[in-house]
Here is the input.
Amino acid sequence: KQSIGIVEVPDAPVASWDTRFYWGVDNPKDLDQLKEAWTAKVKETAGSMLSQTDWYVIRQAENSAAVPAEVLTRRGEIRTLSNEKETAIAACEDVAALAEYVTGSEYRRWEELPPEPTPEPTPTETPAE
Here is the structure.
């Protein structure tokens, strides 16, 4: 190829961007709208996680049955993490900072929570004789 004057030229690198935060290269989405969306996502995740143990709290309200300590601890951890995430999102001064936080390990701390406590077995009714 070289003998006949053909020179191989590598392709230019293709620019990429995270479409969750940018419309294109150096074209960020609206920061306030992103903050609102990510805060809503945090609240939705926390709500979903809390809903798995809501029945303990409802049972306590209805018949004063104690909520296991590990359930109360977990619910507190979920609320604390949710509040920390919402505060961190609100503190981001630009889209780049928000993207860095949301894609970083601090945001993924949901995954570090211990597993859900095993639900207590539900008593089965015995048929009337």
